[in-house]
């Protein structure tokens, strides 16, 4: 090793605990390792339980994707037992999912990722009149007066003067990789605060349909909420009107704030359209059904795989095919009964921990051996990227008209070729474009729900197969979703009415896993190769690319000791 | 699965107090805050409060910090005290929260700071429950922490009385 090894641990502003080690030579990353240093083990707690209860437990593994895991779980059980949910249940699930996507993508962009591009301290130097002029030139958003931006600037000044930067404490302010003029920085900070305010309202859709938030309620066979337009305690017209209002506001926020911000910031960072591409294979399970979850052709986000960045061809993906999705543990702290070189389809998955890494605190992981709690999944042996970029690319290749339209329009407006999508900037832009599409689809689904109800269909639950006595002695199923950060799968085996095996393959397992037994890098590791690092002490560039994936490793909680030191999962070391 | 809120729009009338339990139900004693609100749910009416299971909600909890002038927050803490010990603290700034308080990923501190950035500063009573270890994938409370549920309930009742009878410090300073 000739280069210098740098370590980012933990990567901040993500869910969960991720460690990145990177080898830098002549100012560029030549190799990288991604390690999930937090263990998860939801699989073990589910064994032996009633499959109808699994959604409530898996919803607790994460504070961000909460409802996505629950949805994936009920889909897995419904698949195993052959249950079809009523149209209203599908629409309500979609509406909750749209809400999650919109909230999650906006929070990711403004609160977890934007500060990688926006320099808060530079915003203090902005001329509020000029910010106002820019705002009015890029959208019709009403908060655009010089006085408004002056107020925001004064609030930031107060933060800085008090020495309590609060939410803005965690940044490499003044780093030379920040390229925006002060005015765009102030615009970004103003919208950071507005997005914070907006996101806390939109999630009320979860409370309306799911009865509570966070961790809303679902049920195997449909939705646990009842619809009755005139009943106080049901989904009534007043509540539906609130849903409609929140969805309209969401569409306005995305179209007038989020998208214009992306378009205003991107031209300053076009070099990032050539950095961070990494893998050339993309996987999407697809989601947002319009004609039943069983009918993959009805999905708005198509299912499929793109190999070698070939946007003219979509490979068919079948999660039940025992030869397609397989997980290995060659570099992960697990044991398989068949040894380290074996890969297993999740139906046959095993979850046995075996930590063999160094005793913390340690300087470096021994990356030639096992170095992560994340298993390494492969599709037909290929390392795959998952997430909004994969969804947009698979949708583009599948010629989904909405996706083709928005991608072409955006590239046209920026006068850029399609190859720029394969990058850090492409990933961040794909998330914004997807938000735009979803904000429109959400209103379509709302209208369909209203039409159904007005036509007299108030069903939200299919009771057939609810009773375990009606189940076969064994059954197995797969639940697939496109979580905001990528393809998510739950695999369930049911025996004698109880869960016999349950395996999750989560998006960050695809993106953040260690090398496979053949030495192939996964998405995070591959994406960092070639990334410039201007200052080894402040590796802002690493954070940019890793954040562009929206990592989520929160399958368990982690704690800090009294001195603020990280406490690892001691019982598993 | 607790969320007694019936009023969703920010402008809707609501009680002045929210009791929020946070923690991870899959992490044994770490989930004590959620166990506590499950016990308190039937008392929402008498408490004059909304009672919410915040789980590991992160940013999803921000509206609670912005829409109620008073909050009783219940969470586990890893502070080397005897397991099950219950304390009440009245943090004013994000930095007043004990650093040992569990960070539910996008943590409590981020949440408080975000609420403050939006100009909200509810009066928070933080009930901390000392726990000894982080257990992974355990759903039951250990006997010592389970025994704290009674004292937690008493503290919540006392604090709710204080809030409603005007004995609490003003919410805005």
UniProtKB/TrEMBL annotation, chain A:
Fe cation binds at residues 65, 555. It comes from Candidatus Lambdaproteobacteria bacterium RIFOXYD2_FULL_56_26. Ni(2+) binds at residue 65. This enzyme recycles the H(2) produced by nitrogenase to increase the production of ATP and to protect nitrogenase against inhibition or damage by O(2) under carbon- or phosphate-limited conditions. It catalyses: H2 + A = AH2. Belongs to the [NiFe]/[NiFeSe] hydrogenase large subunit family. Its cofactor is Fe cation; Ni(2+). This is Uptake hydrogenase large subunit. Its EC number is 1.12.99.6. Pfam families: NiFeSe_Hases. Its main location: membrane. The keyword Hydrolase does not apply. One of its GO terms (cellular component) is plasma membrane. GO terms for molecular function: ferredoxin hydrogenase activity; hydrogenase (acceptor) activity; nickel cation binding. It is found in: Cell membrane. It comes from the Bacteria.
UniProtKB/TrEMBL annotation, chain B:
InterPro entries: Pept_HybD-like_dom_sf (IPR023430), Peptidase_A31 (IPR000671). Signal peptide: none annotated. GO terms for biological process: protein processing. Keywords: Aspartyl protease, Hydrolase, Protease. Gene3D superfamilies: HybD-like (3.40.50.1450). One of its GO terms (molecular function) is enzyme activator activity. Pfam families: HycI (PF01750). Belongs to the peptidase A31 family. NCBIfam families: hydrog_prot (TIGR00072). This is Hydrogenase maturation protease.
């Amino acid at each position: 090793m000739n280069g210098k090894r740098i370590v980012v641990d933990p990567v901040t502003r993500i869910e969960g605990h991720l460690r990145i080690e990177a080898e830098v030579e002549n100012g560029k990353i030549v190799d990288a390792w991604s390690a999930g240093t937090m263990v998860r083990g939801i699989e073990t707690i589910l064994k032996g339980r009633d499959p109808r209860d699994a959604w409530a437990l898996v919803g607790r593994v994460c504070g961000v994707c909460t409802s996505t895991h629950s949805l994936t779980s009920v889909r897995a059980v419904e698949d195993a037992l052959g249950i079809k949910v009523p149209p209203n249940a599908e629409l309500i699930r979609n509406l909750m999912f749209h809400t999650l996507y919109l909230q999650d993508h906006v929070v990711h962009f403004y609160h977890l990722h934007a500060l990688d591009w926006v320099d808060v301290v530079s915003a203090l130097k902005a001329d509020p009149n000029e910010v106002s002029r820019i705002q009015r030139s890029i959208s019709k958003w009403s908060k655009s007066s010089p006085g408004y931006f002056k107020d925001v600037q004064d609030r930031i000044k107060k933060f800085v003067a008090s020495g309590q930067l609060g939410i803005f404490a965690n940044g490499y302010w003044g780093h030379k990789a920040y390229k925006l003029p002060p005015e765009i920085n102030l615009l970004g900070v103003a919208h950071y605060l507005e997005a914070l305010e907006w996101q806390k309202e939109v999630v009320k859709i979860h409370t309306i349909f799911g009865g509570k938030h966070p961790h809303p309620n679902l049920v195997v066979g449909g939705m646990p909420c009842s619809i009755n337009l005139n009943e106080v305690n049901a989904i009534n017209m007043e509540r539906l009107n609130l849903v409609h209002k929140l969805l309209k506001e969401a569409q306005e926020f995305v179209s007038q704030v989020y998208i214009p911000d992306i378009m205003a910031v991107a031209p300053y960072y076009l070099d990032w359209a050539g950095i961070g591409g990494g893998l050339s294979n993309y996987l999407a399970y697809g989601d947002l059904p319009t004609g039943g979850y069983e009918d993959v052709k009805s999905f708005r986000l198509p299912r499929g795989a793109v190999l070698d960045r070939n946007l003219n061809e979509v490979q068919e993906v079948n999660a039940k095919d025992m030869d397609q999705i397989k997980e290995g543990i060659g570099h992960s702290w697990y044991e398989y009964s068949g040894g380290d070189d074996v890969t297993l389809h999740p139906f046959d998955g095993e979850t046995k921990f075996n930590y063999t890494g160094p005793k913390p605190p340690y300087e470096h992981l021994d990356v030639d051996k096992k170095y992560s709690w994340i298993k390494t999944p492969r599709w037909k042996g290929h390392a795959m990227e998952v997430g909004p970029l994969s969804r947009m690319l698979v949708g583009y290749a599948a010629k989904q008209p909405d996706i083709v339209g928005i991608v072409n329009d955006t590239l046209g407006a920026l006068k850029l070729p399609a190859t720029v999508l394969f990058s850090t900037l492409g990933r961040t832009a794909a998330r914004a474009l997807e938000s735009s599409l979803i904000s429109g689809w959400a209103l379509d689904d709302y209208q369909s729900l209203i039409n159904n109800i007005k036509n007299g269909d108030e069903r939200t639950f299919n009771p057939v197969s609810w009773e375990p006595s009606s189940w076969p002695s064994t059954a197995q199923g797969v639940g697939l979703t496109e979580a905001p950060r990528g393809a998510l799968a739950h695999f369930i085996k049911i025996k004698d009415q109880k869960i016999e095996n349950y395996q999750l393959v989560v998006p960050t397992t695809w993106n953040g896993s260690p090398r496979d037994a053949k030495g192939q890098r996964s998405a995070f590791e591959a994406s960092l190769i070639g990334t410039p690092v201007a200052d080894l002490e402040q590796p802002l560039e690493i954070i940019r690319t890793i954040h562009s994936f929206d990592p989520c490793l929160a399958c368990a909680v982690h704690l800090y000791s009294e001195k603020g030191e990280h406490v690892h999962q001691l019982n598993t070391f | 699965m607790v969320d007694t809120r019936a009023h969703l729009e920010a402008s809707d009338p609501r009680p002045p107090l929210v009791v929020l339990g946070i923690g991870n139900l899959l992490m044994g004693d770490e989930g004590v805050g959620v166990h506590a609100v499950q016990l308190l749910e039937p008392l929402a009416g008498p408490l004059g409060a909304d009672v919410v299971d915040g789980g590991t909600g992160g940013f999803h909890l921000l509206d609670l910090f912005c829409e109620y002038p008073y909050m009783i927050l219940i969470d586990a803490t890893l502070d080397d005290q005897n397991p099950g010990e219950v304390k009440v603290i009245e943090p004013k700034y994000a930095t007043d929260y004990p650093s040992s308080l569990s960070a539910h990923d996008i943590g409590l501190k981020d949440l408080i700071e975000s609420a403050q950035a939006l100009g909200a500063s509810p009066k928070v009573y933080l009930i901390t429950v000392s726990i000894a270890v982080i257990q992974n994938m355990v759903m039951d409370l250990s006997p010592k922490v389970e025994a704290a549920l009674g004292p937690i309930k008493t503290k919540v009742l006392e604090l709710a009385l204080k809030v409603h009878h005007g004995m609490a410090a003003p919410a805005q300073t």
